Amino acid sequence: MKDLTVSTLIAVFEEIFGRGVFWTMVTVAALVTLAYVYVLVRDRSVSWRKFLLAQLSMPVGAVAAVWFVMVMTHSQLSDIGGPIDVIVLLAVAVLGAVGMAILVYTLESLLGSTRTERRLDP
Amino acid sequence: MNRREFLSLSALGGAASLALVAEPGPAAATAVPTSASIVIVGAGAAGTALANRLARRLDGAKITIIDPRREHLYQPGLTLVATGLKPASYVVSDTARWLPDGVTWLPERVAAVDAEAKTVSTQGGQTLSYDWLVLAPGLVLDNEAIEGFSLDLVGQNGIGALYAGPEYAARTWSAASAFTREGGVGIFTRPATEMKCAGAPLKHTFLVDDIARRAGNAGKVEMIYAAPQEALFSVPIVSEKVRMLLEDRRIGTQMQRTLTAIDPGARRATFATGNGTEEIDYDYIHVIQPQRAPDFVRQSGLSWADKWVDQGWVEVDRQTLRHLRYPDVFALGDVAGVPKGKTAASVKWQVPVVEDHLVAAIAGGEGTATYDGYTSCPMITRIGRAMLVEFDYNNDLVPSFPGVIAPLEELWISWLMKEVALKATYNAMLRGRA
Lengths: 122, 434
Prior knowledge:
The structure holds 2 protein chains of 2 kinds. Chain A is mostly helical. Chain A has one domain. Chain A has helices spanning 6-17, 19-43, 48-72, 83-111, 114-117. The longest helix of chain A has 29 residues, at 83-111. Chain A starts with 5 loop residues before the first helix and ends in a 5-residue tail after the last helix. The mean pLDDT of chain A is 85. Chain B is of the alpha/beta class. Chain B contains 10 helices and 24 strands. In chain B, strands 7-4-2-11-22 form a 5-stranded parallel β-sheet, covered by helices on one side. The longest helix of chain B is centred in the N-terminal third of the chain and has 20 residues, at 3-22. The model of chain B is unreliable at 1-28 (pLDDT under 50). Classes of the chains: A mainly alpha, B alpha/beta. Chain A binds chain B through residues 1-3, 5-8, 10-16, 37, 41, 72-76, 78-82, 84-85, 88-89, and chain B through 3, 6-7, 10, 20-21, 23, 25, 85, 348-349, 352, 382-385, 400-401, 404-406, 409-413, 415-416, 419-421, 423-425, 427-428, 431, 433-434.
């Protein structure tokens, strides 16, 4: 790597996924984040009932993200060879977990289920 | 924080990140006005990247790029094709796709360069005069140098030769995969000449060994790495690490062995040793042809007269890549007569140097950028692991991520870089953006 600037990184990500897919993914991530912010602002507080379901979905997101990366890169868990590999693996898992939690929380808030819709927690 | 404050803060954050994206790179500096005529020979990694950068840096220059090949090859991917990890199409794209507007592409083969008259003539009969010439035609594989070998044999009778291109890399995999299933003796060679990506012969060895292992056939294969050199790798500290890895995988080594002939029917290889010849029977052999500068370069009088005389690399200053006798000529990539440097990663470091000296000279000044021999090799040691080996002319290790990615450790992240990020970085480089 010669110069690791933001524009280089964006260029590299555009090449990995293709310009269209990359910016679609960025847009989807931004929309989900915006929707999440919207429900937080709308509800004026975090609903712990919704958050419980979101938390329960986190391990699923973590495992799914790690599985996706392993399959896409012809890798397996035994390839982990040093501290940086563990960090990257954990980062992938955390990203998957947080992404899944935000997605579940937002969907729950927007679509609503009777269980969590009834009223806000104290 | 009330809702309004919250929303305006988020809007500010969004604007800030947009500003970060739109931040102009250094190449967006004011273009230098000129009417100079620049000829680039070769639309491979180096020629294409330079054309894109020059198109941005110069205003009014007449830039012509000459290359007969309509298909651009992502050569770092060939090792992956030759072990079935990627299809042949993974390395192929259209040459035209990477060339910028304002650059003329002449799809012809160069016949001769006259550095005194400052002209390049093509086999199609055209003659172009230039103010500046950049030689980046790559190299040629000398198939005839190995008696009994020809490209149509690749893929049959246990013969592989991944350097010859995507089709031959795919055929190499059909021969190599048969070997990993059926077992026998596998010989993995290296030529005596300079070569592109000196790590590739080892990568192929490690990958084939790993695939045989995964198939449960480790006991059925006998792996031999045979090379003309005395050392396993030109950088001593890497060489020692490779020695340990080969021992760990129980891969035998036969050094100072130069492949001179093969008998495809009998599956027998002949090697020149220091004091005679030696024959080894094989079930699979990976042939890497000796590599030389294209004929027109060797006939143009631009090669070194006292170095690499059988190979003909261009006589350039190792720091500036500028020709030592003709200052209006530069050489980039495989054809440049410098130690090391025949990898795509080297090209990435070399191109900005030539760009700097060329643009500065056109503007009437003197360039300052230098190339220190940076060469990088994500040395795959098995599927899923690699060592990110980076070094320079001095054989010093020059890790890009010191303390984070250890150069001599087999890591998953180094594999990820090779498998996922490298082609993307390469493509960004072609466009002159990395």
